[in-house]
Specification:
Blueprint (H helix, E strand, L loop, with lengths): L12 H16 L5 H6 L13 H8 L8 H11 L13 H9 L1 H10 L4 H17 L33 H10 L1
Helix pairs in contact: 5-6
GO molecular function, one term: DNA binding
Organism: Kitasatospora acidiphila
InterPro entries: Cro/C1-type_HTH (IPR001387), Lambda_DNA-bd_dom_sf (IPR010982)
């Protein structure tokens, strides 16, 4: 995977949510609806969802750009992402996800804290050596993973909505009857 060019790294809340939506669609195998996303904000104890589908829709479309912390936490839960990624200036999704999911990474960061840049460089070199020994790429890992665009939703069979049939379509339909 290659890192997207800096111009394509999302910085707005709506842009970040779009990236997370694409990432979630890859994970679960389909693009979730806003109602599905709202259902994913429900606490584990069976209480109703924390957010409505309308709020999630407004966030995805950029109509709400400064939600409260409780909304950020619920949206992060819905997208299975670190809440910090949704805040301005926190754009390293890969690093934040690793930090959130791996206690060992959190301990490594605490151990290096205060030791200076040389210690951080040693830690990075050691991590690259480990990746090389495990036959993993030693190239820099992108801050934002390369996620494919959403696949177009298949059209549903049934009655056509929104609009009048053209004269040609009406004539063809009349000829069939």
């Amino acid at each position: 995977m290659t890192a997207p060019p800096p111009s394509e790294v999302p910085t707005t809340l709506a842009g970040k949510l779009d990236l997370l939506l694409r990432r979630l669609a890859v994970t679960i195998g389909h693009t979730p609806s806003v109602r599905e996303l709202a259902a994913r904000t429900a606490p584990a104890d069976g209480d109703p969802p924390s957010l409505s589908h309308a709020v999630i829709n407004d966030l995805l479309n950029g109509r709400k750009t400064n939600p409260p912390c409780t909304t950020i936490q619920a949206v992060a839960q819905a997208f299975d992402a670190p809440a910090a990624y949704l805040l301005p200036g926190w754009d390293d999704l890969t690093g934040l996800t690793a930090y959130q999911q791996e206690p060992g990474i959190r301990e490594a960061v605490r151990l290096v804290a205060g030791l200076g840049p040389e210690a951080a460089a040693e830690l990075v070199a050691a991590a690259r050596d480990i990746r090389a020994r495990r036959s993993l790429s030693t190239a820099p890992v992108p801050e934002v993973p390369d996620v494919p665009p959403l696949a177009p939703e298949p059209t549903r069979p049934g009655r056509r909505r929104g609009g009048r049939r053209s004269d040609t379509e009406m004539a063809a339909r009349a000829a069939d009857n």
